[in-house]
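Practice problem 4.
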């Protein structure tokens, strides 16, 4: 069960570059993805402090701009996991700090709930561990 989470997609909007348009500039804790049509694999990822050449912007017909939050956030999860006897269960609470390190991958998976991704990765690991113990151990 997700106790606290955040949506890393700060904004998603149409992008219409012109010959003299300014380069999109991400904030200090975000990244900007420029996407041409539905071709996410060819997206251009702009991070703070990274310069983009005008030719890179003109190379593809980018028409969508997505800003992804890359700052750290607290995430809390709670799991109810069956023990070794398959009758009893452990309640595991996990609190952590999370940040998006690969904005393109995160956006490609269309995740708007950061904790969902973490929960999907951790639950099988925690369940395997819980199945190794009974409440008497």
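Answer key:
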């Amino acid at each position: 069960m997700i106790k606290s989470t955040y949506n890393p997609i700060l904004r998603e909007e149409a992008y219409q570059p012109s010959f003299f348009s300014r380069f999109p500039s991400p904030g200090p804790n975000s990244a900007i993805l420029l996407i041409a049509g539905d071709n996410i694999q060819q997206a251009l990822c702009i991070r703070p402090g990274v310069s983009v050449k005008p030719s890179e912007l003109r190379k593809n017909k980018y028409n969508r701009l997505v800003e992804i939050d890359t700052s750290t956030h607290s995430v809390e999860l709670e799991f109810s996991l069956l023990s070794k006897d398959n009758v009893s269960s452990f309640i595991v609470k996990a609190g952590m700090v999370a940040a998006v390190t690969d904005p393109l991958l995160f956006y490609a998976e269309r995740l708007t709930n950061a904790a969902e991704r973490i929960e999907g990765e951790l639950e099988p690991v925690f369940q395997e561990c819980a199945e190794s113990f009974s409440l008497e151990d």
